[in-house]
Amino acid sequence: MLGKRARKHLSQLGEFERGLIIGLKTAGWSKRNVAGQVDRSECAVRNCWEQWTREGTHARKTGSGATRKTTRREDRRIVRQALVDPTVTRSTIRADVGVAIVPQTISRHLAEANLKSKRPFRALPLTPEHRQLRLQWCQARSMWNVTDWLKVVFSDESRFVWGTDDNHVRV
């Protein structure tokens, strides 16, 4: 429960919680009692109450947070570059966009578009059970001759797309 409580203390006060704080403080409750009731810090209660007494409102201020470094158009350009060339690096994208942004910003924009990088497997991860089953299969067919193997049809599970896009994220 401690982790959940700590996360709640880091989140913003909701509209209902702000109204509840104002109501309880107006009713004469102490800062400590109000903080215990809404399960928030005394500092959050004090800041909310001070805003109410100073400005007469408990609404959050608009425009809070960091200013945007990229426009919506530049955001789309970042995603489009990653779609066109899946092997492009973040530094290449940053140089191409021409805006001074950190690599984490590019990663965040790509993650919002469900584009995530993955490392390809060098080999299939086989469990000991898989290895045992493969060995048994091979031992059962170790004495087969050419005519026996001619009766077997081999196929793979490769996908071929004739269209332009199959909507899959590439590695």
TrEMBL record:
InterPro entries: Homeodomain-like_sf (IPR009057), RNaseH_sf (IPR036397), Transposase_Tc1-like (IPR002492). Residues 75-140 form the Transposase Tc1-like domain. Pfam families: HTH_Tnp_Tc3_2 (PF01498). GO terms for cellular component: nucleus. Gene3D superfamilies: Homeodomain-like, Ribonuclease H-like superfamily/Ribonuclease H. GO terms for molecular function: DNA binding. This is Transposable element Tc1 transposase. It comes from Trichonephila clavipes (Golden silk orbweaver). The gene is tc1a_547.
